[in-house]
């Protein structure tokens, strides 16, 4: 069974900021579909199978891999308001 996709934000350590493209390439090789490389922040965002987090964390230069949580508020006219 194929794992469902999850959205991730990957933080790159300061020592690898000059190699951000290489880190993004290694993340791709580890199964992540890279969507954005935010160079000034040292963050790479994208999606990968939900169970890929350990392999993404193993990429040199990666300090954290956080799943992006989705929050949706009910419409203003919902009974919950």
Oligomer: single chain
- In the predicted model, the low-confidence regions spanning at least 5 consecutive residues are none
Order of helices and strands: EHEEHE
Strand order of the largest sheet: 2-3-1-4
| Helix percentage range | 10-25%
What's the overall geometry? globular
Radius of gyration: 15 Å
Largest sheet: 4 strands, antiparallel
Helix-and-strand structural type: alpha+beta
Query: Care to count the β-strands?
Result: 4
Mean pLDDT: 91
End-to-end separation in angstroms reads 40 Å
Task: State which percent range the strand residues make up.
Answer: 25-35%
Your description of this structure?
The chain is of the alpha+beta class and 81 residues long. It has a domain at 11-63. It has a four-stranded antiparallel β-sheet. It has helices at 20-29, 53-57; strands at residues 5-12, 33-38, 43-49, 62-67. The relative contact order is 0.29. This is Ketohydroxyglutarate aldolase.
What labels would you give this structure?
alpha+beta, 19% helix
Write the layout of secondary structure elements.
Blueprint: E1 5-12, H1 20-29, E2 33-38, E3 43-49, H2 53-57, E4 62-67
Antiparallel strand pairs: 1-3, 1-4, 2-3
């Amino acid at each position: 069974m194929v794992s469902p996709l999850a959205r991730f934000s990957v933080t790159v350590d300061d020592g690898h900021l000059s190699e951000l493209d290489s880190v993004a390439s290694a993340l791709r090789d580890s199964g992540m579909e890279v969507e954005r490389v935010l160079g000034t922040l040292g963050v790479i965002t994208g999606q990968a199978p939900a169970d890929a987090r350990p392999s993404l964390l193993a990429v040199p230069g990666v300090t954290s891999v956080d799943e992006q949580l989705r929050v949706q508020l009910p419409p203003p006219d919902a009974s919950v308001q």
